[in-house]
């Protein structure tokens, strides 16, 4: 049978999602825990292979198994064998036509920035930090240049192996709540370091180093050297993976719980963006 899981993790202690020779991939820890419940080796496929230091609220994973277990075993049973930085949030039995990666319609990444004069230990490895004041209105104006179907060569890393640099951004929002700035990007798929490179460029605009129209120049240059430095991985989260509603997969809660330490306002991603 095919089982789908919703997995949340703090990526700070891992070398990204994908299995590593040193065993420090999120995939390594998850497959090891699944094997203890299944009684045999389990191979997983995920919706998006996050990089070193990147977190996930809604990583969707599927695997095939002949082991018959209650769905609670794939949640609480597996969590018993996972490190505290990873948790399975839900499990569903799926038809064989479900595929965590190829079945995803859209993915949303959220980047959280702590915009404050002094760094915060509570946000360490969980948010990017900018001590200069950010003008979120200018950042929103710059973001508008990136929405739609474009060649994002200027925002892909030199290590990117994607066959084409063309991607379709459905939404790109910038929203501030107190000292926290959230940049949310929804697209059909992403290039390597694409979101972090976009965040770096938006920060350049936000601190006044560049006007918002510069973003269009960077996009049209189709040259990585035309953009800003790649921003830290610390504040990047795989926030949502969307599938055909017929699959009935749960949605994540909306924001990382550590953020509640900074505000008691409604920070749901779909609210006030």
Describe, in plain words, how this protein is organized in 3D.
19% of the residues lie in helices and 27% in strands. With 273 residues, the chain is an alpha+beta fold. β8 and β9 form a beta hairpin. α1 (26-38) crosses α2 and α3 packs across α4 (194-206). The chain is globular and about 60 Å long.
- Strand fraction: 25-35%
Which geometry do the CA atoms define? Answer: globular
Helix content: 10-25%
At CATH level 3, the topology of the largest domain is Alpha-Beta Plaits
Overall mean confidence score, pLDDT: 93
What is the CATH architecture annotation of the largest domain? 2-Layer Sandwich
Distance between the termini: 39 Å
Please outline the major beta sheet. Answer: 10 strands, mixed
CATH class of the largest domain: Alpha Beta
Name the structural class.
Answer: alpha+beta
* Count of strand segments: 10
Question: What is the radius of gyration?
Answer: 19 Å
For CATH, the homologous superfamily of the largest domain is named as Pseudouridine synthase I, catalytic domain, C-terminal subdomain
N-to-C order of helices and strands: EHEEHEEEHEEEHHE
The tally of structural domains comes to 2
> Tally the helices: what do you get?
5
| Low-pLDDT stretches | 266-273
């Amino acid at each position: 049978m095919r089982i789908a899981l919703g997995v949340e993790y703090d990526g700070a202690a891992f070398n990204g999602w994908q299995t590593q020779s040193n065993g420090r991939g999120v995939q390594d820890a998850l497959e090891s825990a699944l094997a203890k419940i299944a009684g045999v080796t389990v191979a997983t496929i995920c919706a998006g292979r996050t990089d070193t230091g990147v977190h996930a609220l809604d990583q969707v994973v599927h695997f095939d198994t002949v082991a018959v277990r209650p769905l609670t075993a794939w949640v609480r049973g597996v969590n018993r064998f996972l490190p505290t930085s990873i948790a399975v949030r839900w499990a569903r039995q799926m038809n064989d036509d479900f595929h965590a990666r190829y079945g995803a319609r859209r993915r949303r990444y959220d980047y959280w920035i702590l915009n404050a004069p002094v760094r915060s230990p509570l946000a360490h490895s969980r948010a990017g930090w900018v001590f200069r004041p950010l003008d979120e209105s200018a950042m929103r104006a710059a973001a508008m240049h990136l929405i739609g179907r474009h060649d994002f060569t200027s925002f892909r890393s030199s290590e990117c192996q994607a066959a084409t640099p063309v991607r379709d951004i459905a939404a790109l929002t910038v929203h501030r709540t107190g000292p926290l700035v959230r940049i949310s990007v929804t697209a059909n798929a992403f290039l390597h370091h694409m979101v972090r490179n976009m965040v770096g460029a938006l920060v350049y605009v936000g601190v006044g180093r560049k006007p918002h129209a510069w973003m269009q120049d960077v996009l049209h240059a189709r040259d990585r050297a035309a953009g800003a430095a790649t921003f830290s991985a610390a504040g990047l989260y795989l926030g949502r993976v969307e599938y055909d509603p017929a699959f009935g997969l749960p949605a994540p809660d909306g924001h990382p719980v550590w953020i509640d330490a900074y505000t008691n306002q409604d920070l749901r991603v779909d609210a006030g963006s």
